[in-house]
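in:
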């Protein structure tokens, strides 16, 4: 019986040491987790102050200086994020304007080539029209030069008819 109690006592001691060892490990982990949570709380408070405060007041006490340096850092981070957003917007606008400029440039190039082709066509057709008008002036077909009164009798026709009548009578 003494052996059973002794072995139970040894097992109990081993169990106690193991549990204390494990609790110490968990305790260290929980302490580090609690420290991180406290740091996060402080950061959140600093962010809340920076976001919700209307004006930045600088105090002379040492504790408030450390808090205000955190506030200043937070304000700088907020300003930096605002500047990044503005930079993104400006970059977007620049890219949009650059795209529109390229598009207009291509349109202008197309219009210039189209106009150049049209002028060349006009020059070619203008030369052919001038050549045709010169050819028309040189080639005058009988009866096509001046309009005449149809059904009218000219004096030369009357004279020739009188002569024919005289010879026949």
């Amino acid at each position: 019986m003494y052996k059973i109690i002794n072995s139970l006592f040894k097992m109990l001691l081993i169990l106690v040491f193991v549990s204390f060892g494990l609790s110490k490990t968990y305790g260290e982990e929980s302490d580090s987790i609690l420290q991180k949570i406290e740091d996060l709380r402080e950061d959140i408070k600093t962010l809340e102050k920076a976001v919700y405060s209307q004006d930045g007041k600088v105090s002379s006490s040492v504790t408030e200086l450390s808090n205000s340096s955190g506030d200043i850092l937070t304000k700088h981070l907020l300003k930096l994020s605002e500047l990044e957003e503005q930079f993104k917007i400006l970059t977007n606008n620049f890219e949009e304007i650059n795209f529109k400029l390229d598009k207009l440039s291509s349109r202008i190039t197309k219009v210039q080539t189209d106009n150049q082709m049209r002028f060349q066509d006009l020059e070619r057709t203008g030369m052919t029209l001038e050549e045709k008008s010169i050819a028309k002036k040189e080639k005058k077909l009988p009866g096509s030069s001046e309009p005449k009164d149809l059904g009218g009798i000219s004096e030369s026709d009357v004279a020739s008819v009188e002569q024919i009548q005289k010879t026949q009578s």
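note: The two ends are 189 Å apart (CA to CA).
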